[in-house]
Amino acid sequence: VTAAHAEPPTPRCTRLPSTRASMFAKEQAPFTCAASFFMTLQPILVSLSKNGRGGFDYSMPASTLLSEGLKLGISGTLLASACFQKPIKILHEESFTEFVSYMVPGVIYFLNNNMIFLILQAVDPTTFQLLSQLKTIFTGLLFRVFLNRRLSYVQWLALVTLACGTAVSQIPTVAPKGSRRAELASQALAGVGLSVLSSFLSACGGIYNERLLKARPSASIHWQNVQMYVWGVIFNGAGAYLKDGDVMRSKGVLWGFTPAAWTVVVCNALNGLAISAVLKYADNIARVYAHAIAMMLTMTISVQLFEAPVTPQLVIAVLLVATSTLQYNLPSDVVSSPDEQSSLLRAEARYEAEERGESADECVTPANRVRPSS
């Protein structure tokens, strides 16, 4: 597909990135809310798709493969529709390199998804959820290192509060005793190590994916998604074949799929598309908050749907997450003085100018000393 008009040249001095999250802005809020909605539905639908013995009659790797295929089909359809409405540029001189780059997050997500099974063999789900909150801190660190985005002290405090809130929600009401405690102690070392690695991989995958999606702001998100999900289909197809290949050959790929199982496939596909939009138009911090909010909503819904008890941990966790979300999104003029804002913006401008090999004075002007609105 060729372009009717070439992409506009990148300006010498790019607009300064916002130092505040924009997940509640009118442009980004729909994607963040959609991601939270599908993240909330995901564990509930998975629970409803279980059989009477608490297991699954269908292949979980096949379910993941079908979700990747559905995401690829939806993205391809939207891309074709966009091309028919208005010619857009897709291919360029570095198209092959760009396509290969999308293999990296594909490999990371594939390894991480399979590692979770090993973790849950070593530790109980509560311990896994507690350790998984390390991804919040890893995301904040990688957000700064790889995306050159600065977080204020208030934002860092908000991230710590978020991690505490999600961790509190997983504290058991009754501590394990006797043999159960001994079992957890014997498995702790391997489980903790794998959980830390899983959290780091999850943060790396999200950060790398965001960097790819934002590398060409004018590129169609549908084309970027197509490249991502091609690799997803390849890796998940190989994983499904290796794990359940014999059963698939004898019974077929769709064996055991009930209407409830298909809702899981559709929900996972829509959730992936929503997260991609969050990374493209907001950032990874918004994804972290969407996941935390969804976690709280899932627990709240479980109280009614599965008759789960309302615990003090749940109430405290909801309050902490809500406080953290509001704290992170406070306007900059509330948490810093004008002089501090100006100093931060000048520092960001100098840093970006040095990265491009330019003079800092070229980018620090009265027009861009004012914080961008997005």
From TrEMBL:
InterPro entries: EmrE-like, Nuc_sug_transpt
Organism whose genome encodes this protein: Prymnesium polylepis
Name of the featured protein: Uncharacterized protein
Example GO molecular function: pyrimidine nucleotide-sugar transmembrane transporter activity
Biased segments, Basic and acidic residues type: 347-359
Organism superkingdom: Eukaryota
GO cellular component: Golgi membrane
Membrane topology listed for this record: Multi-pass membrane protein
Subcellular location: Membrane
Transmembrane portions of the chain: 99-120, 126-146, 153-172, 184-205, 226-242, 254-276
